[in-house]
Amino acid sequence: MRLKLAIVATHPIQYYAPWFSHLARQAELEVRVFYLWDSGAGDHLDPGFEAPVRWDISLLDGYQHEFVPNRSARPGTDRYFGLWNPDLATQLRAWRPQAVLLTAYNFASLGYLLLRWGTGDAPLVFRGDSHRLVATNSPMQRLRGRLITTIFRRFSAALYVGSANREYFALHEVRPERLFRSPHAVDNERFVAARPAAAAGAIEWRRLLGIPAGNRVVLFAGKFQEKKRPLDLLRAFVDAKLERASLLFVGSGPLEAQLRRAAAGRDDVFFAPFQNQSQMPLTYAACDLFVLPSYGSAETWGLAINEAMCMQRPVIVSDHVGCARDLVLPGVTGLVFPAGDIAALRDALRTAFEDPGRLKSWGERAGSHVQGFSYENATAGLMQALRSLAGGAA
Description:
7-stranded parallel sheet, globular, Rossmann fold, 6-stranded parallel sheet, 2 domains
């Protein structure tokens, strides 16, 4: 008999949907995803990109799913009451799952579910990616920490995506025997399969952008937001004075105008618009080094790092990026610098570019290392947790 697993997710997300499809192909599982909002399923305005987005890979194929009516007056995932789905518990019980996996807890619907879900209902499992890499000790933070600890006691098992996330669960008193490794992953197979075509296409794309042939390219791809710190990268790149190097910004967002003003008059800084999912392999293939200089606790993992490494690109990340300790092995797959330290980022760029052969080797090692962060490994951790709940061997 297959175990019926219900997954509660906020909305269709391009990183999670392929994993849900992977789970649905497991012989031991029958999976159904309960979505709390339909944003992402079609055209939607992405506030981070400040532009309308329609993903060009399907986020709903390959697995059972249903949408729970969202009664919020202002739907969204940027506010607690942006997801208000009072029928969630009823729809879950109607499907009669044997376990329920939550991918969030900090919305009104999920708080209400935790209050209504009783001991006679299916056990709850949580998979999150929060960390405490940015330490704070304010009274409000301590109060919030106690609340999170109380919430985590409602879960029978927790899946951690990396070392910083595991420490976060431990900080909130989740016992070790209830913790299972389920690493954050992207669709590795899709990216690896795209490498040959992307390598060829990237040469032409760089030419069309005006990047001089033979220049090495530093890439930032994502939302131009303060928390991502693209201006830090621009300043560090300018200060580094690298020979035959270009900086490419791909994306959009609230800092775009400021970035363009700061780069005005430079012939070594280039911009390209938002690239959809099918174009991301080519985007990473166009660079020699990918940089994510985020600051603060909002960069809970940084799945763009997984994607870049799948394309055999070395990376530089700040130490506030959640995946830093797991994916970025200093001097092996890339470098880590102190968040907000522009001089340190400048020096990291210089170190990375001082030996082209070594940089290429870092990329090859990155491509190998990221294969340990796969949907197969994420699923293995989930299955361990489910077996432990059923009384089997963990």
